[in-house]
Amino acid sequence: MSGLAREPDMDAKCVACVDDDPDVLKVRRLLLEASGYSVVTATSGRQLLRFLTDAGVVDCVLLDYLMPEMNGDELAQKLHQQYPQLPMVAVSAVPQLPDSMLGLVDAIVQKGSDPQLLLSTVAAILARPPKKHLQIQPGATVLCVDDEDVQLSMRKRLFEVAGYKVLEARSAKEALEIFMSTHVDAVVTDYWLSGAGGNGTALAEQMKQHRHRTPILMLSGLGALPGESPIVDSWLSKGRIEPRELVAEVQRLIELRTSQQKDDKSEP
Length: 268
What we know:
The protein is an alpha/beta fold. It has helices at 22-34, 45-53, 72-82, 99-102, 115-127, 149-161, 172-181, 200-210, 243-266, and strands at 5-6, 14-18, 38-42, 60-63, 88-92, 107-110, 141-145, 165-169, 186-190, 216-220, 234-237. It is 40% helix and 18% strand.
């Protein structure tokens, strides 16, 4: 089957399936229909976007990653921008998806997995309450600090997709220079930093001396950071944190700081 089609049961939850392989779409469509879902199939991201633009309504999207013209990462970003409440599930044979895509999808199912796993994942996501759409402050800026270029690049992309302006620093010295000369709404820094200026702890101490209310989130491969809580506002384990959770935690810290500033202004 090719092209885009929708079954007539408009009362059932509608699941959109996007994959450039017609055979995969056919099998997935039959599986979902047998479980009582209404199904939309599209062989490209552009096709699904056209359907949604023409007042099409879906309750969940299953999208592949490796697709010509517009891959799953690009499609996820467009869907998030235009339909931020729409749940997405990546169904891909690629073992490691880009962090930018991981930060947007609600779940991942490996292609070739037990069909019941896919069905249970879709059912669980559709049973959730609607997503809380993070209200990013206009022009909110995050300073990302890491001495590893790959990690820094992925983190920059992740926050940009979420709607932030991103500044980058590869050392504590460079980060402090940016922090002192530019407005920053939050700092995300690695604990271990090579080069001049010391590690993340020394950087956080210096930043807090100048602007104690700017939230600082520290990432570490360590299991805990004993004694660091008075310095940083939050710390997360690099090995366990999901990209979406990282963005949500930064947003929480920014909202908390904004709320505190409003309380201060309201005091006599």
